[in-house]
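Problem statement: downstream parser choked on a complex file, so we are re-checking the raw output for the pyridoxal-5'-phosphate run. The parser issue turned out to be on our end (a line-ending mismatch), but while we're here, posting the original submission so the record is complete.
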Amino acid sequence: MKHNFNSGPSVLPKEVLDQAAQALLDFNGIGLSIAEVGHRSPWFVPVMEEARALVKELMQLRDDYEVLFLQGGATAQFMQIPMNLLDNGQSAAYCDDGVWGSKAAKEASLFGTANVVASSKDKNYTYINKQFNIGTENKYLHLTSNNTVEGTQWFSLPDTTVPIVADMSSDIFSREMDFNKFSLIYAGAQKNMGAAGVTVVIVKKDFLQNIQRPIPSIMDYRKHIEAGSLMNTPPVIAVYIALLTLRWIKKEGGLKEMERRSIQKSTLLYNTIDSLPIFSTYVAKEDRSRMNAVYFINDEALQNKFLETCKANDMVGVKGYRTVGGIRVSMYNALALESVEAICSLMKDFANKNG
Ligand SMILES: *Cc1c(COP(=O)(O)O)cnc(C)c1O
């Protein structure tokens, strides 16, 4: 068995993969593949409807929220959000706590003013800057709920009346929260809710009013809402895998259970890092991500040896992001506790031999 610590695309539940493989050959016994039926057919429409409904159910969203499945990844949302929400001359506030958040701010500046109201760049993004003021002239506040690359995560929301927009690409469906406090939530599916190719966008309907800018239809949230996410051909296989993953989350006990597992796994890993002097993490303790642990061995040669040792022990995806380096262990929903136990025991063994 491989221990899959990939940061994304990443580990999926085995039963989801089995069901997806079956559907690719013969979908629900209809004698056709899921890839061979029309997206407006009586076979696919219920897939889209159930997926949208399950997102709302799992997150306990009120009726004034719409759920869309779109293409272009979370990266397309960096542009689509300001295109739909910021008129020329308007401004939005951005938290710059990592590579993804800064990219989002950069794209927004093509459509209006992107005010960076908080940044943790001064300390290489090793913490979440929560000390800031947001002027009410800002149309929204954008934050990244989990910084996949740097290994930090938000554990409480900023206290503001400005609508909050969150990139939840790497921690969606990993914990309970009052999601009705957000005006827009988006996430690429390939980290915690399925395969690459589809992006979920959850938006409060009244947030999408009064924009003067002409918006191309394919970019216009309102048109996608009207069409029930079937304006054009959606990525049917990716939507189906997202549905299977959502069903799996519900069956396993929903967000409460995902959160319990995530706390258990990340606590075990961080305790192990803290107990072994050879390993260190620069991430502020209170902001440590439960999804992505980023840490180092200060001696580069030894660190490379550790990465090689992981590989030799069937552990994949442990190398840090190219600009950060070091070690990154991603612990998404589908990662078994046994995998975290395995890397922790390997770390102890490695420290004994090389410490
Ligand atoms: C991976 C990731 C992205 C980029 O997602 P794509 O689907 O590749 O565009 C954006 N934001 C966060 C927080 C991510 O983890």
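For whoever reads this later: The mean pLDDT is 97.
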